[in-house]
Amino acid sequence: MNKRVLWPRLHTFARSLVVIPFLVAAVGCGESQQQATTPGPVDVTVMKTEARDTPVVSEFVAKTASSRRVEIRSRVEGFLEERLYTEGELVQPGQPLFQMDRKPFEAQLQAAKAELAQQQARMETAKANLDRVKPLAEQNAVAKKELDDAQGVYREAAAAVEAAGARVTQTELDLGYTTIYSPVLGLSSYAVKREGAFIGFGTESLLTYVAQIDPMWVEFSVSENMLLRKRSALKAGTMVGPPDENYVVEIILADGSVYPETGKITFADASLSEETGTFLIRAEIANPGGQSLRPGMFVRVNLIGASRPSAILVPQRAVQQGAKGSFVWVVKEDGTAEFRPVTVGPWHDDNWFIDEGLQAGETVVVDGALKLRAGAQVNIVEPDPKEDDAANQDKSEQDDKKDDTEKAGAEGAETPEKATDK
């Protein structure tokens, strides 16, 4: 064969042998990169939705108040002789609190009694004279004028006796008013007047006050928006109220303990407050012994009695927030994730009420939702107890911070509200 023809063919064949390995390597690299970018199943924890009747508890920040704040005032003028109680102690009904100087009133009583005796003696004389004149007048032995005069003197003397008796009664009352008693069971305040001070009428008559603490009032406010939402839910049937609107009032104290007594709502203001935009609600609750609750305490109030029929609840961490609102991830029957927009209702413990978007029996992703995308394969795993404990601890710390913030904000308001039913 001609060398000129053979050499180009050999050169071409050699170049092919060099290029083929690079092509094989490039094809293998592309396949490995494609395999590396294909995601595997995402580990998630899930829960099955269930429709059930769920109680609805509305929580508010409230303030305790005395059910009866009685001003202790003097009914007579005089000098204060002694304070008979310990300031700030619990006083009983009928317990003496102050003693005024009795001597001037005792003297007035003696004078009134002496005047009464004098008028009674005059009446007896007038009666005796009338008894003598009356038979003579019947026999026409004396003029009729004498009978009329005798009857007039007797009636005048009898009226004077009545007036003198009334003055005795009044002076006895005044003498009794010198000892000032507590009309109710309650906590006493400090004494406005001290021993030796002159007690007058009007503003000068105030000595102290006693706050009745059994029963106690608990006052809180309901916002206009919340009230309208409640009415809409009741009208739509998504919420059912208690019979005759008899809500049970439960109190949570500052240390987190539940007060053993429950109360009921006794007053709801007829108009909206122009300053706060809320309605004042007042509940009454027993306070046996008067030692547990004191006026001015900040507490939390739970209104119990309403419920949501056939409600669906999901954990709060299962609900995500997007540009168009709230959504959850639902696991379909083929094991893939589905993006599902939802409409959330109020909170219930650690859960959200789902008003729209979910049906009973669906599988909702609780943990691991941040790694999901539509159509992604999921691998359902059991929840990690350590993660649940950490989540509960974080929630407890957040609740404590929220309570401190709400209490600080409520101190400037008359009846603040804790907005947990959003």
Q: What helical percentage do the residues reach?
A: 25-40%
Task: Please tell me how large the radius of gyration is.
Answer: 45 Å
Low-confidence stretches: 1-8, 16-20, 22-36, 405-422
Number of strands: 21
Number of helices: 5
Your description of this structure?
This protein is α+β, with helices and mostly antiparallel strands and 422 residues long. It has helices spanning 3-37, 103-138, 144-177, 224-236, 385-410, and strands at residues 42-48, 52-73, 78-83, 90-91, 96-100, 179-181, 186-188, 198-199, 206-223, 248-252, 263-268, 278-285, 298-311, 313-315, 320-322, 325-331, 337-341, 343-348, 351-356, 363-367, 378-380. Strands 1, 15, 16, 17, 20 and 21 form a 6-stranded mixed sheet that branches. It is elongated. Mean pLDDT is 82; it is low at 1-8, 16-20, 22-36 and 405-422.
Summarize the entry for a quick read.
The chain has 5 helices and 21 strands.
Main attributes of the structure:
422 residues, alpha+beta, 6-stranded mixed beta sheet, 6-stranded antiparallel beta barrel, 5 helices, 21 strands, elongated, disordered N terminus
How does the SSE layout of this entry go?
Blueprint lengths: L2 H35 L4 E7 L3 E22 L4 E6 L6 E2 L4 E5 L2 H36 L5 H34 L1 E3 L4 E3 L9 E2 L6 E18 H13 L11 E5 L10 E6 L9 E8 L12 E14 L1 E3 L4 E3 L2 E7 L5 E5 L1 E6 L2 E6 L6 E5 L10 E3 L4 H26 L12
Parallel strand pairs: 1-21
Antiparallel strand pairs: 1-20, 2-9, 2-13, 3-5, 3-8, 4-7, 5-6, 7-9, 9-12, 10-11, 10-13, 11-12, 14-19, 15-16, 16-17, 16-20, 18-19
Helix pairs in contact: 2-3
